[in-house]
Amino acid sequence: MANERKRAVVLLSGGLDSATVLAIARGEGYELYALSFSYGQRHVIELDAARRVAAAVGVADHRIAKIDLRVFGGSALTAEIDVPKGRDAEAMSHGIPITYVPARNTIFLSFALAWAEVLGSSDIFIGVNALDYSGYPDCRPEFIAAFEKMANLATKAGVEGRLALRVHTPLIALTKAEIIAKGIELGVDYGLTSSCYDPGSTGEPCGECDSCLLRRKGFRENGIEDSLAYKRGPASS
Amino acid sequence: MANERKRAVVLLSGGLDSATVLAIARGEGYELYALSFSYGQRHVIELDAARRVAAAVGVADHRIAKIDLRVFGGSALTAEIDVPKGRDAEAMSHGIPITYVPARNTIFLSFALAWAEVLGSSDIFIGVNALDYSGYPDCRPEFIAAFEKMANLATKAGVEGRLALRVHTPLIALTKAEIIAKGIELGVDYGLTSSCYDPGSTGEPCGECDSCLLRRKGFRENGIEDSLAYKRGPASS
Predict the structure, then answer these.
(1) Domain boundaries in chain A?
(2) Cβ contacts of A137 on chain B, cutoff 8 Å
(3) Minimum distance, in Å, between the CA of residue B225 and any CA atom of chain A
(4) CA distance B156 to B161
(5) Which residue is closest to B103 within chain A, CA to CA?
(6) Could you report the per-residue pLDDT of B132-167, keeping only the tens digit for each?
(7) Rounded to two decimals, what is the model's pTM?
(8) Is B89 helix (H, G, I), strand (E, B) or coil?
């Protein structure tokens, strides 16, 4: 047991935030179990990014769970609804956008909980962010706290009092610029990640969706060049 | 709006409990949206039962979400582990059995939450039972209450204060015998349902797994004949 490292399940989308979280969990000494989802997302190219990031950081295992969120429709990320482009911070801060996938983080965390239980892990990491968060309800600290409480009542380990499950959200209070600064410090190669909600057929980011705009702003504020080749829009204006 | 019925998402496994819940929700006047899962269960025959039950009760829609819980392993219901047979009530009451699927109800309820959000529904029905429950942690009232609380923080409707989501558990305090009595009263045709964890290739129940044993006991206590043809074991001793 002396040399056994604690296991963590890390939700890994292939985007900038989750790549940073993976590096943070590694930095804290966890053995990493990365979990991605094939959920009918239009930006399925992010799964290639997830594989690249998992390999680069070095994980004990990486699984991709197939779930079909399209069965319910309801979001621009899974259904045939246009992804909004070119919105400013003001527009992003109002209401919940059409790219919101109903109950997505609840579903993702539930799967992470299942795997954590099988692995005997009590630590789940997720890259939610309550600042530059595009207004998603399931990215808020009060949601995470409620999920954690529920999770500890849902499992064998919780019932038997063996493990107290914790949902780690190391990015929750950081700006995008702070996240990028932290990742650079930890050696994250952001060139491997994919953030765009609506990438072109060869994977190039659109440069104009909320996710691209937040990413570009974050790099700009760090005075760092983002190595991704955007399809459109000024990269550093 | 005057004639618009309230919508309910009802988790429907095709077993005795969820068929009863569907009839209860219908009795309460809800428009029914039945949700089943193809999750790699070895008793996949229950999905045929779910289709029969949904058609017989009359639902507005029935969806089967494909999710692969086998990706994590860990249960006799999804992995290649033998289903225990012939256990008495004493044995069933100790510990959590190998047929427990990690975080299954958390995952199922999360999907129900997603669909409820898309439908504008604030009512989810689930046939969990805290008495004859085989010792599953995610069947207990405190788990359901915690899920409900989390769910109201997870969604657009919750955040905007438009809907207070409720998870209905009409069977939670009933014995199997009481559930069957209620179903008979509501006209449920239990001959359409499937309860066995380990059915034969033509669908006949084994008669000896925990689920079969609980079902047979419930019928026996009502002095009613179960119309299913069991493979083995005394049907009414």
Answers:
(1) 7-222
(2) 153-156, 158-159
(3) 35
(4) 8
(5) A114
(6) 555 678 888 999 999 999 999 987 777 777 668 999
(7) 0.86
(8) helix
